[in-house]
Amino acid sequence: MDLSTDVVVVGGGACGLMAAWRAARHGAEVVLLEKDRRLGCNAEIASGSLPAAGTRHQRAAGVVDSVDRMACDILAKNKGQADAAIVRALCARSPEIIGIFEDELGVPLELNTDSSRFGFSALRLHNGPGRTGAPLIAALRGALESMANVTMADRTPGTGLITDQAGSVVGVEAGTQRLGAGRVILACDGFGANAAMVARYIPEMAGVEGIGVQGNTGDAIRWGMALGAATAHMGSYQGHGLVCAGYGTRLVPEIPQLGAVIVNREGRRFAREDQGYSEFAREVLAQPGGVAVAIFDQRMFDVVARLDHWRNTVASGAIKSAPTLAGLAATFRLPWDAVQGSLRDCDGSRPDPLRRAALPVPAVAPFHGALITGTLAHTQGGLVVDVHARVLRPDGTPIPNLYAGGGSAAGISGESADGYLSGNGLLSAYGLGLIAGDHAAQTLRR
């Protein structure tokens, strides 16, 4: 080996940063390998919504919630297809994650009370400033940079795993360097930027432009598979059905939950707007031209006006406005008669054929709209791990010294985009990073 250390973490996104920080807090010597920090990570460009149950923010807002209730919501959304033990382990650590960011890393968080989210039985999404993930990632990076027992190697991608004759992982290859390690934690995210893997495992998204970072090429998953690791949910992904076509920005998930009406080019609704935005991607892509138009009003606009992602979308020019709904329909060349019928379906004057919840309809001028499409945000399948984040073989035995989390590990959304619940990705990333960092460092000392 060219260098030996206690723990090597491969990947500098949410999972890798949390794992490295936690292992170092236990006194382990840690080397963190990052492919290219300039590419960013999915957690950095996401809304940073951390789901957690039993937090002080919920109690202050009078929200009644529990770890068990949160786990039941996740398992209900994925139809029981995810590992229930891992779901419950992540939910149990969720309030701790909120405390880490606030009390130890200095990131102020708030409970999102602007709107509910599909599949949630209680308000439990917590966000940092501007409701973006960037402050969370910056706080972890800053903490690691100040720790003497952590080496952060940027533009130094891992290129493979090193094993001994017994099959135990004993290090990582990084280009021409061989790094020995007592424990290796894979946190390279998923394979959303690997066209061949997407075509193989998620054919319905083949050729669809993704919005995840371009460094997510499935490296860790392929290394694990080469060692005989089990995989699960490889066809699962988080879609996003609210991406502004041609602009590279997106509507925030609150907009449909606040009552936006979404129609196709024919002016007709095609799916209930208040379903999860992940499964909604498929619905939008199935429409003529693979696009739809979201129609909302000034009341809805004002609720989300302070959010960073929303400001970016407004600045991009993706949102069009008009003083009347008829004028807005004309802006998007939608048949007004059909749009009127779609609005009436939602106003409570008659039963909604698509059965969306009783939400307000756009009624406060001026009115706004955006041409939207569906995309792939990130993949949810990966290496099978246990409740300690150890990578498992098909027979359930762990590959010695090897851990995985975030997009490198099988997620908690089940077999398809339909099982994704808001925050599942970040819960898995930060949660499994926390668990892996703890277990890797603590077992080294035994």
Can you characterise this structure?
By secondary structure, the protein is an alpha+beta fold. The protein has 2 domains: about 5-235 and about 380-445, FAD/NAD(P)-binding domain, CATH 3.50.50.60; about 240-375, Flavocytochrome C3, Chain A, domain 1 (Alpha-Beta Complex). It is built from 15 helices and 18 strands. The protein has helices spanning about 15-25, 40-45, 55-60, 65-75, 85-105, 135-145, 195-200, 220-225, 255-260, 275-285, 300-305, 310-315, 325-330, 335-345, 425-445; strands at about 5-10, 30-35, 50, 110, 125, 150-155, 160-165, 170-175, 175-185, 230, 235-245, 260-265, 290-295, 320, 365-380, 380-385, 390, 400-405. The strands form 4 sheets. Strands 1, 2, 6, 7, 8, 9, 17 and 18 form an 8-stranded mixed sheet that branches. The longest helix is centred in the first third of the chain and has 21 residues, at about 85-105. The radius of gyration is 22 Å and the shape is elongated. The two termini are about 25 Å apart. The mean pLDDT is about 95.
- The level-1 CATH class of the largest domain: Alpha Beta
In CATH, the topology of the largest domain is named FAD/NAD(P)-binding domain
Distance between the termini: 24 Å
Describe the sheet with the most strands.
8 strands, mixed
CATH architecture of the largest domain: 3-Layer(bba) Sandwich
In one word, what is the shape? elongated
Radius of gyration: 22 Å
Number of domains: 2
Number of helical elements: 15
Low-confidence stretches: none
Q: Output the CATH homologous superfamily of the largest domain.
A: FAD/NAD(P)-binding domain
Mean pLDDT: 97
**Percentage beta strand:** 15-25%
Structural class given helices, strands, pairing? Answer: alpha+beta
Number of strands: 18
